[in-house]
Design brief:
The complex is a heterodimer of chains A (about 300) and B (about 250).
Chain A: H1 3-7, H2 19-22, H3 27-58, H4 61-64, H5 66-69, E1 74-75, E2 82-83, H6 86-117, H7 120-135, H8 138-157, H9 165-189, H10 193-201, H11 206-235, H12 238-243, H13 261-268, H14 277-309
Antiparallel strand pairs in A: 1-2
Helix pairs in contact in A: 3-14, 6-9, 6-11, 7-9, 8-9, 9-11, 10-11, 11-14, 13-14
Chain B: E1 5-14, E2 17-27, E3 32-36, H1 43-50, E4 60-68, E5 71-72, H2 80-86, E6 87-90, H3 101-110, H4 118-132, H5 134-138, H6 151-162, E7 169-173, H7 181-194, E8 199-203, H8 207-213, E9 216-221, E10 224-230, H9 231-236, H10 241-247
Parallel strand pairs in B: 3-8, 3-9, 6-7, 7-8
Antiparallel strand pairs in B: 1-2, 1-4, 4-5, 9-10
Helix pairs in contact in B: 3-4, 3-6, 4-6
Classes of the chains: A mainly alpha (about 300), B alpha/beta (about 250).
Chain lengths: ~300, ~250
């Protein structure tokens, strides 16, 4: 008989002790834990509150006359007023898509250059410049767009006005680029060097390595960067207010003036009577924006997670 | 036997630090040559030199000559891409690309100058996967992501990835150090099988492994070759004191 077997207590007998009960947390630990708990829940609370107030202030205009809200005309001060969201939604979408189409190739390209090709000094200069670009207030960019870009667009395409969807898109693309560049560069940088070496060792050229190994490996990050850039563009207010031309019509090309959801809220909120139909209509625009942002963020989240699990 | 990889007074510097000092080494074809030695002795540096992977590190300079077949590796006229197709390398940690198993193995073919047609490509991919035993393991599911395989399967995938271009030499830099003993045995079996078609140069700090799989063994120490001989000779009848000390575990 092995004595050590004899001595060990029979399995599953005797009192079971929950480990948590044996560990008494010091009060400082509890306080900190409570603090970070609270901070996390506050984030959710704020989102819920924003949604709540948007819904309350839009005051059932949507429910009162849903066809009015999905209408094709936004004429808040004509008689009777019309509060159709479509032209503004179309304006926002047009500007967002155009800006994204410009910003993503440029941003990803810049990130590839910074991450893979640029000599160290150039890389530093570029990175600092990109970060600086991100820090420029949007009103300044709008100002630049107004006095530099708009006249250029006007004469280039021979238009009655240079304040068009194209001008706004270009400026927005410029504003979305820093986000896309730095996040894409992070994504490329986080691709392990072993993959680069592996590709080089198989006789791949630098460009083949980037296209066939690095970009696929960094894809989730690049998609997330794109979606965040889109989020930045769709929420941008000041610059579009200044350079989009502010014509609330459904546009037929990027060379027409348009008006976005955000610019409408910013421009008209000051003139409305609290609680009026116009006021409520503006808040329903806010709801629409909220919805769009939610969708964009959810997609971004999904894309990132899909990359992680596969 | 005409050596396939040959170093003659080959030296390599990282900036001011000389990592390899007058290395002379002849690797015979279709044998497994093991390079052993303590950490930092230059074995990996030498291995990577054969594939010119040290090029990416700034400040690397070389002297002497290193050749694969008739190609002088560090001659300015040598085309690196072509060289690397002749000389495959497997790294310490498996590094499959985040692509499908098929695309991983087809990678070397598709990045080359003359891409074979689709049938030829898939034939060679399947052959390579058969060779390493992955075809069986995966039940023919080549769309699986390379990164989703087990570590040992990933390493065999990385070996398979080198094969479709039919290289002369396969370099291995401690290919089993991330694997458990059972998986190591599988990979070692594979290496012994591979030497029928390709010359293998393997760096290992695992002496037993060198003893198990290699035909020729070369001991490196502080950037120099101490002794190169048949593996049996190295283990049973070392000529140098340093080799004896290393083999018996008194040093290293």
């Amino acid at each position: 008989m092995n004595p050590s077997v004899k001595r060990s207590p029979p399995r599953g007998k005797g009192p079971r002790v929950t480990l948590r009960a044996t560990y008494r947390k010091p009060w400082s630990e509890r306080l900190l834990e409570g603090g970070v708990h609270l901070a996390a829940w506050l984030c959710i609370l704020f989102v819920v509150l924003i949604l709540f107030f948007l819904a309350r202030e839009s005051g059932g205009l949507v429910f009162k006359d849903v066809f009015q809200v999905v209408g094709r005309y936004w004429r808040p001060i004509s008689e009777p007023p019309q509060f159709g969201v479509l032209p503004l939604l179309a304006g926002s979408l047009l500007v967002t898509l155009t800006a994204t189409a410009i910003a993503v190739p440029l941003g990803v390209g810049a990130a590839i250059y910074i991450g893979e090709f640029a000599p160290p000094q150039v890389r530093e200069i570029l990175k600092v410049s990109v970060e600086f670009l991100a820090a420029i207030p949007s009103v300044v960019i709008g100002f630049l767009g107004m006095i530099v870009l708009a006249p250029l667009v006007k004469s280039l395409f021979n238009l009655p006005t240079g304040l068009t969807a194209l001008s706004a898109s270009l400026m927005l693309a410029w504003m979305a680029m820093p986000t896309i560049v730095s996040l894409t560069e992070d994504a490329l940088r986080s691709v392990p060097d072993t993959l680069r070496h592996g590709a080089y060792a198989l006789g791949a050229t630098r460009w083949q390595t980037i296209r066939r190994v690095l970009l696929p490996a960094a894809k989730p990050g690049i998609l997330a960067a794109t979606m965040l850039g889109v989020g930045r563009v769709i929420g941008e207010t000041m610059a579009v207010l200044m350079i989009s031309g502010n014509a609330a019509r459904i546009p037929h090309s990027v060379l027409e003036p348009i008006r976005t959801l955000t610019a409408t809220i910013a421009a008209e909120m000051g003139e409305t009577v609290q609680g009026s139909d116009h006021y409520q209509a503006l808040f329903s625009l806010g709801l629409v924006l909220f919805g769009i942002t939610l969708v964009v963020n959810t997609i971004a989240d999904r894309l990132v997670h899909r990359g992680e699990t596969s | 036997m005409e050596p396939i990889v040959q170093a003659r007074d080959f030296s390599l510097w990282y900036g001011d630090f000389q990592a390899l000092i007058d290395v002379n080494l002849s690797v015979p074809p279709q044998r497994v040559t093991a390079i052993i030695g303590p950490s930092g002795c230059g074995k990996s540096t030498f291995l990577r030199s054969v594939n010119r992977l040290n090029d990416a590190i700034p400040g690397v300079t070389t002297s002497g000559s290193l050749s694969v077949g008739k190609t002088k590796i560090y001659e300015p006229s040598t085309e690196i891409v072509g060289l690397r197709r002749e000389v495959g390398i497997v790294f310490q940690r498996p590094n499959p690309f985040p692509l499908s198993v098929y695309d991983n193995v087809a990678f070397g073919l598709q990045t080359g100058a003359d891409v074979p047609d689709r049938d030829e490509t898939s034939q060679r991919v399947v052959d390579a996967l058969e060779e390493v035993g992955l075809m069986e393991d995966l039940g023919g599911d080549l769309e699986k992501k390379g990164t989703s395989l087990s570590l040992e399967q990933q390493q065999r995938l990385c070996i398979a990835r080198c094969l479709p271009t039919q290289p002369e030499v396969l370099l291995m830099d401690e290919p089993c150090s991330a694997l458990d003993p059972e998986d190591t045995e599988r990979v070692e079996r594979l290496i012994r099988k591979l030497k029928k078609t390709v010359t293998v140069v393997i760096v290992t700090h695992n002496l037993q492994q060198a003893g198990r799989i290699s035909d020729i063994c070369s001991l490196f120490h502080l950037g120099r070759v101490v002794e190169t001989s048949k593996t049996r000779e190295i283990f049973h009848n070392p000529q140098e004191k340093l080799t004896r000390d290393f083999i018996t575990g008194r040093y290293g």
